[in-house]
Automatic annotation (TrEMBL):
Family: Belongs to the glycosyl hydrolase 18 family.
Species of provenance: Pedobacter suwonensis
This enzyme's EC code(s): 3.2.1.14
InterPro entries: Chitinase_II/V-like_cat (IPR011583), GH (IPR017853), Glyco_hydro18_cat (IPR001223), Glyco_hydro_18_chit_AS (IPR001579), Glycosyl_Hydrlase_18 (IPR050314)
Single Gene Ontology MF annotation: endochitinase activity
Domain of life: Bacteria
GO cellular component terms listed in the entry, alphabetical order: extracellular region
Domain GH18, chain residue ranges per copy: 44-339
Protein name stated in the entry: chitinase
């Protein structure tokens, strides 16, 4: 009987030992899912994008106090659902760390060729792989969320329905880990397959929409060369909020930190400040060429509009803005009454 007990004990020890060894090899640490339900952040947002081709040293540290969210741009998908190598990973790390140290929520913006998105989203298998890779990237880099910049799903190529599926699948996965999902979308002022390509079924899945109300030369007949007039902002928000029923708390008004001329060539807002022009206005003659942009007065008007009827503002892009007291992001914060000191 003693021998039986002894043999049984040895077997148990061997089994436990074997399990421990196998666990250490095949079961890497996985952070547990949060124990509480996901609750979206419905506070007013001040968002800016940071492109990988910009030098972080060109942005004053104090500017980070003026935003609530920062998106590094861009991470590119492949048609098979994998992700391309991140551009300028050193800059990504530096900018994300700087944002976090200033209490700014961080994310990666995913963009790329339209055909890649169309192909990737058309298959359940590639969508699934893409979602898994995006979730892994966000967890590995301790990001607060993901921004999807697919320009654009369309009813003309059959991608509108697949966009809805993709965004719902992304939302489900990200929200499990309390990470948000946002989307950069068309201003909606041009009727057609692109505007119709963003179906209302996607509204519940996405936390907020960054409405790109710029690059619209010729839309406003009263300001034909102004690519981002105040009237265009009013019309865009009216379409998404009133015509389409987007919830107010999900609407973020995009404001350009750059100007354009009649030939559609762009110049950064900081360049207008450096040229010594009156940036309270919306146009200036620089080197003999007339440019149209959003000066401090119009930026403040747009910030007030967003505060009154939407839930945030967004700037493309962070580096374009001036670092001094003529900053349009500063002007927007002043209009909103936000403390950035």
């Amino acid at each position: 009987m003693k021998k039986i007990y002894l043999l049984t004990g040895i077997c148990v020890l061997l089994i436990v030992s074997s399990c421990k060894k196998n666990d250490s090899i095949t079961a890497p640490f996985e952070p547990p899912l949060p124990g509480t339900p996901y609750v979206p952040d419905n506070n007013f947002k001040v968002i800016s994008y940071f492109p990988s081709y910009r030098d972080p040293a060109g942005i004053a540290d104090s500017k980070f106090k003026m935003i609530t969210h920062l998106f590094y741009a861009f991470l590119n998908p492949n048609p098979d659902g994998s992700l391309a190598a991140l551009a300028q990973p050193g800059r990504f790390t530096a900018v994300i760390q700087k944002a976090k140290s200033n209490g700014v929520k961080t994310g990666i913006s995913i963009s790329g060729t339209k055909s890649i998105f169309v192909t990737m989203a058309a298959s359940a298998a590639t969508r699934n792989l893409f979602v898994k890779n995006v979730l892994t990237f966000s967890k590995t880099n301790n990001l607060d969320g993901i921004d999807m910049d697919w320009e654009y799903p369309s009813t003309s190529d059959g991608s509108a329905d697949n966009y809805v599926l993709l965004m719902k699948e992304l939302s489900d996965s990200l929200h499990k880990y309390h990470k948000f999902l946002s989307a950069a979308i068309t201003p909606g002022v041009y009727a057609g397959s692109i505007r119709d390509g963003l179906k209302s079924e996607v509204f519940p899945a996405v936390d907020f929409f960054n409405i790109m109300v710029y690059d619209g030369i010729g839309w406003d007949k009263n300001e034909s060369i102004q690519h981002a007039s105040y009237n265009m902002a009013v019309a865009s928000l009216n379409y998404w909020l009133n015509t389409r029923g987007m919830p107010r708390e999900k609407a973020v008004l995009g404001i350009p930190a750059y100007g354009k001329n009649a030939n559609n060539s762009a110049k950064a807002y900081r360049d207008f400040v450096a040229a010594g022009v009156d940036v309270s206005l919306d146009n200036a003659l620089v080197d003999g060429i007339q440019f149209y942009f959003n000066g401090t007065i119009t930026t403040r008007k747009k910030a007030k509009l967003a505060k009154d009827i939407a839930n945030g503002i967004m700037f493309w892009e962070f580096y374009h803005d001036d670092n001094g007291d003529k900053s349009i992001i500063r002007a927007a914060n002043d209009e909103l009454g936000r403390n950035y000191n």
